[in-house]
Translation factor Sua5
Amino acid sequence: MAKYYDVHPDNPQPRTIAQVAQAIREDALIAYPTDSCYALGCRLGSKDGIDRIRAIRKLDDRHHFTLVCQDFAQLGQFVRVDNDVFRAIKATTPGSYTFILPATREVPRMLQHPKKKTVGVRIPDHVVTQALLTELGEPLLSSTLLLPGEEEPMTQGWEIKDQLDHVVDGVVDSGDCGTEPTTVIDFSEGEAVIVRHGAGDTTRFE
């Protein structure tokens, strides 16, 4: 049964955030809010977490997982970014964007695209997510909480707990965070390719 964490959207309770972070360190899979929509998240090196996310969402091995990072310094440990790409990403973060970039050796092979050796990264503009990332001290391995056959992600914490109670370990609820996923920009070849139009404005990348 999933543990339910009721978190204030503007002033996240430090004790609750610490409990969520500790659960993640102990290999918990959680559903949590972001600045675009709810996501599934687990510890960076959690094979069990990855397998469970794949099973819940019915994903194949070509799916790009996302490393949700606290800031640009953390993001830079996990992907290679040249100067032009750096400026483009810096101008739009934090925000509702996911960037696909070549992975560094810090990224476990099981997270990388099997052929391209790339991974998704993002820096969310969300108080609760940022509090959790600060407490955790490392990125969250994440994937949008979009269930098979559904056109929109789930938006209510209580609804997520009700439906996924036996397949996730915790649900962080800080209110509705919308249904539109991130805009995905692929920079793996150096030029911006818009993979998915979402919550982030794509004008800069067109």
Residues 14-25 form the longest helix (12 residues). Residues 3-196 form one domain. The chain has a mean pLDDT of 93.
